[in-house]
Specification:
- This protein is of the alpha+beta class.
- Helix content is 49%, strand content 20%.
- It contains 23 helices and 24 strands.
- The chain has a 6-stranded mixed beta sheet. A 6-stranded mixed barrel has the order 14-16-22-17-21-20.
Amino acid sequence: MNIFHKITLTNLKKNKTRTIVTIIGIILSTAMFTAVTSSISSLHAFMKEYTIDTEGCWQGAAFHVTPSEAKDFLSHDEIESSVSLKYIGYANLKDPANQYKPYLYICGVTDDITSLLPVHITKGRMPENDSELLLPEHLTYDGGIAYSLNDEITLDVGERVDEDGSILDNNTSLLGNKSEKTKDGKVIPLESITNTESKTYQVVGFYSRPSFESFQAPGYTALTLSSARTSYQDIYFCLHNSKDVSSFLEQNAPYSYTMNYDLLRLDGASMEDSLNRTVTSLAVILIAIIVLGSISLIYNAFSISISERTRQFGLLSSLGATRHQMIHSILFEAAFLCLIGIPLGIFFGLVGIGITFYFTGDTLAMLYRSETTLHLTLQPSVAGIVIAVTLAFITVLISAYLPARKSMKLSALEAIRQTSDINIRSKKVHTFPLTEKLFGFEGMLAAKNYKRSRSKYRATVISLFLSIVLFISASSFCAYLTRSAGSIYNGNGYELSCTIYSENNYDPDTLLTKIRALDGVDKASYGASFAACFTVAKEDCSKEFESFYSDYEQAYYSNTLLADDSCELTTLIYFVEDHLFEDYLKEIGENPSDYQNSDHPTGVLIDRLHVFNDKYYDINIFANPSSQDIVLSALDEDVKNTCTVTAGAFSDTIPFGVSAPSDNAKFIFPYSCKDALWQALSQNPDSSLENSYYIKTDNHKQVQTDLNTLFDNENISADIYDYMDSIENERAMITVINIFSYGFITLISLIAAANVFNTISTNIILRKREFAMLKSIGLSPKGFRKMMQFECLLYGCKGLLYGLPASIGITWLIYRAVSDGIDFGFFIPWYSFVIAIGSVFVVVAATMIYSMRKLSSENIMDALKNENL
């Protein structure tokens, strides 16, 4: 160890407070870097595990592939591995509870099926030959058909074909097993099972509902072992290079295809540029905020240390020390502090994020699915730790080198005399007369001190400026994340909905009374809905709507620009109970008597759309919404029925029982108008429109069980949908964001407070000689306190003057980053500004009081004799 290293260590020991604060700054910055990189690696690992667990590890899939096409497709060298679901056939189910899923869809698989597809056996085992069958669990709870292990079932298995005889697979939703269509004078079913063959299977197991069975699939997917040649198959595969999946499918898929978008996104092969841009932009801003906070704290610590040692550097330089040796001494100090602070920072960062995951891991896991068996655990990566250490070390080196480089520019004589700290220029110390009138002689003296030694005071103002910017930027970052989560998730206002099939014989009001009587039901109502179309002229469209659909209308099958530039839109027509509709009209400021003409229905149009195309948008359809007639037409192009209704009001508010805004407009009418509108627009006017019941409850599981019992007792067939999963996802997302937000804000606030404390306290201690001189010429303790109070006010106002506008600018940058993924207006979290303004004066005042108490015990003569200050 050379003499310069010994001098450096001696200075660190003499200035314990500053050394400790600097080490704390390094620990905090390293801990935050570690927490960020470890969180990213842990969340990435969890999301990938979850995606593979639920979706499988396949990258792409080609559907409805014939044997010859499969041979050509699988012959490509780019394919690393593949599995197939072979089309064996469909069998009709006897009295299924779900009328939209009347079939058992039997697929042939091979032993390696689980290598790419998620087949989670809950009971039993995989089939070992083509006479054994693995059944899906939801055949029981959704289809109402129960089998047991080792049951033998005989099925008439055949091909599912449409009216023209074309073979349909499970990716084509039910065309209609009861609806019929007239063709050439004959009545032909829209679809049917043909060429049936009787087959007997033994049930050897059950498995969870597979992700490769879409929700609109008309058949429950049963698996059997089969290597036989079939007419069609679906091929799931992985490529050696996942980034080539999209182009490979476009060039080689014979029919329809899809990709495992979630997995590809996690592997960095996603085509969703807007999402990647948003995540990258936010990550860069987050890292930048941490780096800025760390540099501001550590830089000021080293700046003050070097300022204090400037005289010492001058003496060493006069004795022959080189510039390189002195800079090396400062960098040695930085490396020595890193040796202590960085390992502790990594430890506390891992412990902190580990504890956070321990208490929030299940909540985070619930964001994906409440019943998942996976848990979020701390999984730090070596690369993440290396990045955190590198960032922390570079931050400290930059913080040490910048003030050292500036100090080394001084000559030995200037450093010994320390004349560069005070540069008095002509008229620069002039103060306004109002300053002395308002704050007295002491205030004028404080203002002159500030102008006389700007470099010392500038460090304090910059410290406050950065602290304000850091706190408000962190708050804005978290506020925009919370707003983003709220924009993505739209609540319906109810937890359960029940659709009652039209063939049931029941009284809607009587059934509603029985539902309301169930324990745990807080609110319930019934209504109905169906889809129709209407056209909006170009001149009536809002600019935001016109701009959006001129660019993106092709992505939305339900909205189409016509030849005359008018826009044909799909609207969902809702009918709510008459008394609820009347209450709703009063809520939005409408007169219910204007909506009581059943011969000419008048309703409320919700023209606010919440749509996603590359990012989320909230847009209104009409430029100047006002009461007007609208011509509704049937959704089916073959049906020419139309009906004129009146949009009596336009609103963004929805009543209870209407779903949240989506990519379709919503027309709301009283329930008493249901039959008239349905008969006017339906392709089958003699049929009845199904009713739905909407239920608000805090105990959705128990109420769902009670509803099933009620419907069984009443002999009513119904579908029950639990929205609570998505609601719990939203709540979990907000909770997680708040946990990380408040943790992040707390750490940034600690860095900012430590920065201000370190800068102000050290500056005041370095001014001991100045204060002793003022006291020696008669400045009273009261006058001294008054002067320091004015300095405190001056520091705070200067810091706020520069910090608040800069914070608004950074908030705008954060908004721009988030707006790449979600379209909403710019806003400023004013609460953070109020907290920042109050905190600035509190922290400055507290630091002043602490420092002045330390000075109060100093002897004036000893302070005047000390030339090192």
